[in-house]
Structure formats: structure tokens, C-alpha cells
Write a structure and sequence with these properties.
Elements (H helix, E strand, L loop, with lengths): L1 E12 L4 E11 L2 E6 L8 E6 L3 E5 L1 E6 L15 H13 L4 H17 L2 E8 L2 H10 L3 E8 L9 H8 L8 E7 L7 H14 L2 E6 L3 H11 L3 H7 L7 E5 L5 H10 L2 E4 L1 H6 L8 H7 L2 E4 L12 H16 L7 H8 L1 H7 L14 E5 L12 H7 L6 E4 L2 E5 L2 E2 L4 H15 L2 H4 L1
Helix pairs in contact: 2-3, 2-15, 7-8, 11-12, 12-14
Bound molecules: zinc ion (ZN).
Zinc ion binds next to loops.
Length: about 425
């Protein structure tokens, strides 16, 4: 028994760049079974989503975030990265616990769902709680317990390994290791992370080249730049998610490309913390790096919307280079969707038989209507959109703007109680 996306106005495949008009998508057991103009006689459906006036796309992927930071959203604004971390965020995070992280990540999951994000790469403390929260809503997560060398809040490599073993991987959950950065993890820790990750075939998710200061710190500690340190330690591989990469040299771009690493562009967070530069995305794409998008945590953005990040990232790059041709809409949309699936290691959605059935639908509201022959990415990337339906692993999670089988009010109430209990504002005085 399957799910039918019926009479689709337009279905877009970011990998081929093709739009299929007036079609039907039949889904079985989490994967695309058939795509065609006519309904199949053998199609047995228990759910039908009418898509007559909707565009169907693969879901958005948020490839770098810290979901539980919804609890700290709005708490520390208008500060530099170092002051923001040292004076505000890290002291507040000392007060988090398993339960608070769970309810904060559930609220974040609801936000992801409404904005059409179907898969997320998260890095945080109590990551087993984040993984449970996200998968309980039916979304996919690559979950990385954060690792520091300084024993910050139960975040040693040993504790991370325990967390990784605490819940078995499944279709919605994959584990990774999350060494915070080269400046907060020692060389020994990073070497141990590489060994542990290799042995278990885990991905490694790390902050890289986020600021000029982080690069200066790396040069002071290691006598090398951050990507060079990762290269020397053998961490540059297809299993690496390198978040930010704002302040990196041409040589570092080359190293990332040669290693096959994935880079997560987080332009909104970078601009909000005023990192000054814009990540050299065109150079990375030119060198063959798999670039995807992340919002970063809701304390430094404050939105978890990948669509917003996609538009902002494209515009800031064009403006920064005085060149509107530097990034086209089709590439932006691929970065926001299928490139993210590859980075996280989940099966990639598409319109071929056997592709993962992770789709969103975008209704043709007045804000999305244009010339009917305009290219789909041109419409979707730069316009304001809403998401009406979300399907992950063939399961409908949001139908006609309403979450299915989710008690939204309960999630909001639990979040409010946890937020009041955290009482971070007494830290401000
Ligand atoms: Zn981050």
C-alpha cells in the first residue's frame, strides 16, 4: 500500500535539472515506485495528496545546525562570535539537561517540518535526545555528539562513543562524531576521533574556518591553517562535513576538493556574527567540492529555514563579487536539496524508480506565480514560498499545512516550561 502524489503541476529533479509537468508520483515502502502521466492500475494507495496546483521538490537539507539552541534563541544578540560564545552561549549551555534538549529539539523539528526541511545534520550535547526528538517527528537526522578536549559538559570522545551506541541506526537516524573545531579539540583528540570514525564508518562533523580568529588560533597552536590540520590528521574524506569554511585559502579549497570533503555554507549565521567575508563557494564548486547549506543554530540565525538561507546565500555571493552570474538558481537549489542528502549519507530523492521518497510540495500562491514556462529553480529560489505537504521516507508528515500524528500544542507547552525553568536571563545581569 503506497502514497500517491496526484496530478502534480510540476515535479523538479535538481540532479538532472529537469521539470516534469502533469504527472503522478507513486511511492511504496519509502521509495519512488513509478512516475507517469497516467495512474497505474496496480497502484494501491492509502494516502493521496492532490498536487494539481503544486510544485514537487526534494525536501530541503539543513546540513549544519544545533537544534536544541531554540532555548537560547533571542538570548544573545548583536555580539561578536567570541563574546557570544564565551560570555553568553557556553555559560547558558552548562544549564541544559537531557529533558530540556529533547523538548527544545522537538520544537525545532516542528519548525523544520513547516519550512520543508526533511533531513538535518545536528551537532550538540545530549545528542541522543536530539536524535529521538527529530526521528519522533518522522524527519531524518545525522546526529553528532559534540566533542571538546576540555571535558566541557560531558563531551569527551568516550562519552560521544557511548551516545553513538545508545540508539541503533535506522532509516531516519545516522550517527556521526562532532569534534567542535580544531581550536577546541587537541591534536590527540582529533586523531582519536579519526580512528574511532574510521573503525565505525561514521561521518565527522566539524566547524572549519568560521572566522579569521579561528584561523589565527590554528596557526598559533599547530603552525598550520585549519584545513591543513585536518588534512595532516587524515580527516579530509567524503565522510567529513566541514561547516562554514568562510576564511579559507585557495590551497585549502584544493585540499577539501582532493579529499572529497563536504562543505556546509552557512551565510546567514556568518553574516549575523559579522565574520566579514563570504565563503568562496564558486571556487569550491569549481574545484568539485560537494557544497550544501546549513542555518547553524537558532541562536545565531535565528531561523531554521533552508529556503531563506538559500536565497540569502545566493544574493550575498552575487553582491560580494559584483557578479550576478556567479551562482545560478539551479545550483542553489541543488545545494539546498540533493547535495545535502549526499553529504549526510542518506538515499537521495529524485524522480527515478528507487529514489528516496523525501518530497515537499510548494503551492502556486500568488507570490510564486510567474510565466508558466519560467524555469522551476528561478521561481522557487528567489520567490517567497510556503510548504503545504512534507513526505519523508514515503510517510506523509505534513498534509495541507497540518502536521500528521503530532501534538503541536504539547510540543509548544513543554518547550515553554523548559525555557522558563532554564531561566538564562539571570545570567545576563
Ligand atoms: Zn555551528
Amino acid at each position: 500500500v503506497g502514497l500517491l502524489l496526484k496530478e502534480v503541476y510540476a515535479a523538479y529533479d535538481p540532479d538532472t535539472g529537469k521539470t516534469v509537468r502533469d504527472t503522478n508520483i507513486y511511492i511504496e515502502d519509502g521509495f519512488v515506485s513509478e512516475v507517469g502521466e497516467h495512474l497505474g492500475a496496480s497502484w494501491k494507495t492509502d494516502t493521496v495528496i492532490e498536487c494539481k496546483h503544486k510544485i514537487v521538490l526534494p525536501g530541503f537539507v539543513n546540513a549544519h545546525t544545533h537544534l536544541a539552541m531554540t532555548l537560547l534563541r533571542g538570548y544573545a544578540e548583536d555580539l561578536s562570535l567570541q563574546e557570544w560564545l564565551n560570555a553568553k552561549i557556553w555559560p547558558a549551555e552548562q544549564r541544559l539537561d537531557q529533558h530540556k534538549v529533547f523538548v527544545a529539539a522537538r520544537l525545532a523539528g516542528l519548525e523544520l517540518l513547516y519550512s520543508g526541511v526533511t533531513a538535518v545534520a545536528d551537532m550538540y550535547f545530549f545528542e541522543d535526545s536530539v536524535a529521538s526528538a527529530v526521528t519522533s517527528l518522522g524527519l531524518r537526522i545525522l546526529a553528532a555528539p559534540t566533542i571538546f578536549s576540555s571535558g566541557f559538559m560531558g563531551s569527551s570522545l568516550r562519552e560521544a562513543i557511548n551516545t553513538v551506541g545508545s540508539i541503533r541506526e535506522n532509516r531516519l537516524l545516522k550517527w556521526a562524531l562532532g569534534p567542535h573545531s580544531t581550536y577546541s579539540c587537541s591534536k590527540d583528540t582529533l586523531e582519536e576521533v579519526r580512528e574511532a570514525a574510521e573503525g565505525r564508518e561514521l561521518r565527522v562533523h566539524i566547524h572549519v574556518g568560521e572566522s579569521r580568529r579561528s584561523q589565527v588560533t590554528a596557526e598559533t597552536i599547530y603552525g598550520k591553517r585549519e584545513v591543513e590540520v585536518l588534512g595532516e590528521l587524515g580527516l579530509l574524506s567524503q565522510r567529513l562535513l566541514a561547516a562554514h569554511c568562510v576564511w579559507i585559502t585557495k590551497g585549502e579549497v584544493e585540499l577539501l576538493a582532493r579529499g572529497g570533503a563536504n562543505v556546509v555554507f552557512c551565510p546567514v549565521s556568518n553574516a549575523k556574527l559579522a565574520e566579514g567575508g563570504v565563503a568562496p563557494i564558486p571556487e569550491m564548486l569549481g574545484a568539485g567540492v560537494n557544497v550544501c547549506l546549513g542555518t547553524d543554530g537558532p541562536a545565531s540565525n535565528n531561523s531554521l529555514s533552508v529556503h531563506e538561507t538559500m536565497k540569502f546565500g545566493s544574493l550575498i555571493l552575487k553582491n560580494h563579487r559584483w557578479d550576478p552570474t556567479i551562482l545560478d538558481a539551479a545550483t542553489s537549489l541543488r545545494m539546498a536539496t540533493t547535495n545535502g542528502y549526499r553529504a549526510l549519507g542518506f538515499p537521495v530523492p529524485g524522480l527515478k524508480r528507487g529514489s528516496a521518497a523525501d518530497f515537499i510540495t510548494v503551492p502556486l500562491t500568488p507570490s510564486l506565480h510567474g510565466h508558466p514556462k519560467a524555469a522551476t529553480p528561478n521561481m522557487v529560489v528567489y520567490s517567497s514560498i510556503s510548504v503545504s505537504d512534507v513526505v519523508v521516507n514515503g510517510e506523509p508528515l505534513l498534509v495541507d499545512f497540518h502536521p500528521i500524528k503530532i501534538d503541536e500544542q504539547k510540543i509548544m507547552d513543554e518547550f515553554e516550561r523548559a525555557a522558563l525553568d532554564l531561566d538564562i536571563h539571570e545570567l545576563s545581569s
